[in-house]
From TrEMBL, chain A:
Keyword match Aminoacyl-tRNA synthetase: no
Protein name from the UniProt record: ABC transporter permease
Pfam families linked: FtsX, MacB_PCD
Subcellular location: Cell membrane
InterPro entries: ABC3_permease_C, MacB_PCD, Macrolide_Exporter_MacB
Keywords assigned: Cell membrane, Membrane, Transmembrane, Transmembrane helix
The organism's taxonomic lineage, starting at the top: Bacteria, Pseudomonadati, Pseudomonadota, Gammaproteobacteria, Lysobacterales
Transmembrane segment boundaries: 20-44, 315-338, 358-384, 404-425
Transmembrane among keywords: yes
Membrane topology recorded in Swiss-Prot or TrEMBL: Multi-pass membrane protein
Domain MacB-like periplasmic core: residue ranges: 21-222
Source superkingdom: Bacteria
Automatic annotation (TrEMBL), chain B:
Highest taxon of source: Bacteria
Broad class of where this protein is predominantly found: membrane
Ranges of residues in domain MacB-like periplasmic core: 65-252
Family, as annotated: Belongs to the ABC-4 integral membrane protein family.
Protein name: ABC transporter permease
PANTHER family: ABC TRANSPORTER PERMEASE YTRF, MEMBRANE COMPONENT OF TRANSPORTER-RELATED
Membrane-related topology note: Multi-pass membrane protein
A Pfam short name: FtsX
Membrane-crossing residue ranges in chain numbering: 286-314, 343-365, 377-394
Amino acid sequence: MFDYYLRLALRRCRQSVPMVLLLVLTMAIGIAACMTATTIFRALSGAPVPGVSPYLYVATMDAREAVDKDNPDYKRPDSLLKLADAKALVDAHRAVQQVAVAQSLTPLSDPDGKKSEQAYGLMAYGPVVQTLGVSLRHGRPWTEAEQAANAPVLVIDAHMAQKLFGTEDAVGRSIMLGQRSFRVIGVSAPWKPRVQIFNLAQNGGSVMGQDENFFVPAQAALDAGVGPFIAGECGKDAPVVSFQSAAVAQCRWMETWVRLDTPAQVGDYGRFLAGYADAQHDAGRFVYPPQAKLYGTQAWMTLNHVVPDDVHLNLMLAGGFLLLCLVNVAGLLAARFLRRQGDVAIRRALGASKRDVFVQHLVETGLLGLIGGVLALPLTWLGLWIVRMQPVSYADAARFSPGVFAILFALSVGVGLLVGILPAWRVCRQPPALQIKIA
Amino acid sequence: MRHIIKPLFRHRMMPLLVVLQVALACAIACNALFLLQQKLVPIVTPDGVGNPDRLVVAWNIAPRGQPWPSSRLNQVVSELRAIPGVTSASVAGSFPMETMAQMNGNVLGEGAHPARASAAVYIGTHLRDTLGLKLVAGRDFSATEEAVAYKNIGLDASGPVIITRALADRLFPGGDALGHVVRIGDQPDAGQRTVIGVVEHLMRNKFGQDDREDIDYSLLFPGIPSNWPVPIFAVRSRSAAEADSVLKAVKATITRELGPDMIQGMDPTYESYGSLRDHMLAQSKAAVWLLSGVSLIVLLVTVVGIMGLTSYWVQQRTRQIGIRRALGARRANILRDVQLENLLVVGAGILLGMVLAYAINLWLMHHYELTRLPWTYLPYGAALMLLLGQFAVLSPALRASRVPPVVATRSV
C-alpha cells in the first residue's frame, strides 16, 4: 500500500510543479536556517572537553588581600588565586584529582636555537595531564617528586614535537623555555577544549578553545623566567606587571580545577573550599568575606557568557522562522488537499477508510518534507559557509559534522509529517456523500 | 459587515491559519527589526573623528613584564610628532572603535540629585587635536594641563575635562555645562572634573546592546594613564596622501623604540582609523545583513502564504460570489469585501502578534542583555503587516471580482 501511495504522491507532485516547488522551498529554507543555527549552537554549547569537563569544577572566592575602594562589591565570582593558595588547595588532595593552571604564551626552541615556535601552553601545579584528561602518546607525566624539586621537565603536544624535532617521539630531548633547558618527558596528543574555559574573566571575548602546545610545572617555569600570559590581579601596592612576566608573586593568576565524580563529593569539596577561604579571612589575609563557591564547567561558562548571546538569539530566531514556515506550508497544503476533495470522495465511496485517506496524505507530505530536506542540505552548507565568512568570534564553529546529517534527516521527515497532520485530518473528516455532492 | 464576519467563523481553518501566520511573522519581524536597529546604532552614529583618512592608529601594543613609564611613552610620542607630515601625535589608554581596552564609568552631574550617565573615558595626550574633534564650546586643554602626571590610571584624579554635547545635555539639562563639575563615580572621594570644553560628538568604544542612548556619552581627560598595560598611539597626518608614508614611519618608530620590550608572539596593529573602524563594525554590519535578510524572508514567506490561502478561499466561494453578483453586487463591492475580510483577519493576527512580540521581548530581556522593545515599533509593524496583507490579497481579490454572475446559475 505504501508504495502505491508513494507513486500517487509522486504523480500528484508532477501535476503541479510550481506549487510543489513553493512548498518544498519554503520548508527547505526553514530547515536550513534552523540547521545552520543548530550546528553552531551544538558546536559551542556541548561539553568543552567531552568526557572530562562534566566532572571538572573551578574554585572561586573573593581572595583580595587589600581593600579595593573602587570595587568594594564582589559582583562576579573570581577564579584567580595566588600560587600559594592554589598550592594549598591542590596539596590538600580533597578532590578525586586537582590541578592549578594558568595559560602561558612563550617561544619554545630546540637547544641550538635554530628552530623556535611561539606556543600556548599551561603552567600547572599538580597532575595536569591526568586531571584535564590529556592523552599521552609517548612518555609519562611529571611526578610529585619532580614537581617538588622544581625539576625542569615538560610535556609537549605532538604538533610541537613534529615542528621542533621532526618526529613525534621527542621524549628525552631538550627544549629551551625561557632561560633554562627543559627535558621533554612526555608527548601528548593535540589537546584543545572546544571552547575557551581558562581565565574567562580576562580572555577578552575569545570563544573558541586554544591548542595547548605544552604543559610545564609552574614553579620550574617561573624559575626559568617564564610567567603567565596575563598577570591577573596584582595587589594595589605591588609592582605593576602586565604580560608574560615571571614576577607574579604578588598577583592572583592561577585557577584551581578539581575533578569530582559524585554530587556527594561536590558537596564535600564545596564545604572544604568554603572552610579554607573562611580560615584565610579569619586569619586576616582575605579582607572581604570570601563567598567561596564551586562552579561546574558548564555553569562557569554560562556565568561568563562564553557563548555569545547572538548564538542563542540566532537559534531562537531560526526556530521561530521554521515555525512560521511550518504554519505557512500547513496552510498551503490544506488548500492543496481540499481542492482535491472530489478524488478523495471517490476513494471513500469505493471503500477507503478515513485512516487510508489520512495515511495517503501523510505519505505525500512526508515525501515533500524529504525533498525539502534534500534541498535544505546545500542550503545549510551555504548558510554555514556564509557564517564562516563572517567576522565573528565563533566562525570556526560553523562546520558541517556527521551528526548534523542525522538531525537534518530527522527534522525534514518530522517537519513533513507535522505539517501534514492538520490538512490530512481535515480532508478525511468530511463524510463521502457530502464530498461527492460537492464534486 | 456581517456577511464578511460570519463566514469566517463558519469555516474556521483558513482564517485561523492566516491569523497564526501573521501573528508569528509579526512577532519574529518586530524582534528581528529591533535587534537590527540596535546593531545599526554604532554604524550610523557619527563618531566625531574629523578627516578619518588622515588618522593613523597603532594598537595591540603590550609590554612584556611591566608597563612602560609615562615618560617613556611621552618620549615615543615626541619621536612620532617629529615624523615629517605629522601634525599631531597622541598616546592614549583607550581609543574610539578600539574595544579591547575600555574605560567606562558612571558619571554624575551636580546638585543633591545629580543626573547620571554611563560614559566612556578617554585619557590621552592631545586627543582633541589628533582625533580632530570639533569644539562647540569652551577650549582645548592647555600645555600645563596636558603635562599632568597621574598617580595611577587617572580615573580618580581631579582636573579639567572635555565632554560631548550629548553628555553635557544629559548631565546639565539647564544649558551651559562649561565651568560645572562632573564627578566620576559614587565614592565620596571620587574624581571631580571641571568642564572646560564641549565637543560635538565622540563615540564611546563599547558596543553593547544597551547603547542606544549613551553611545555618544564620552569624556576626555588630558595626560597619560600611569601603569596602563595597553597604550595606544595615534598620529594625524597633514593630508590623506601622506597617511601611507606616515603609517610606515609610525610602524618603524614604534618597532624601534618599544619593539624589544613588547610581548612575544603577538604583533601590534598599525592601520588607518578608517580600517580600524571597518574592522570593528564588521561584526555589526554582518549582523545587520543577517537580520535584514531574515526579516525580508519572513515577510516574503508570509505574503506568499496569505496569497495561497486567500486564493483557495476565494475559489471555494466562487459560487457564492456569483450569486452575489447576480443579485446586484458590483465588481467593486466584491473587491472591497475580500479586501475588508483580509483586513479583519490580518488585523486579528497583528493584535495577537503584538502581544506575542512583547512577550518574547520580555522573556529575552529577562535572559539576555536586551532593552525593552519601544512601543513605537508596534504601530509601524502593524501598518507594515496590514499593507503587506492588502498587497497579498490583491490578486485573489481581483480574481474574485471578475467572477461572472452567470456562475450562479451553474452546477447547483
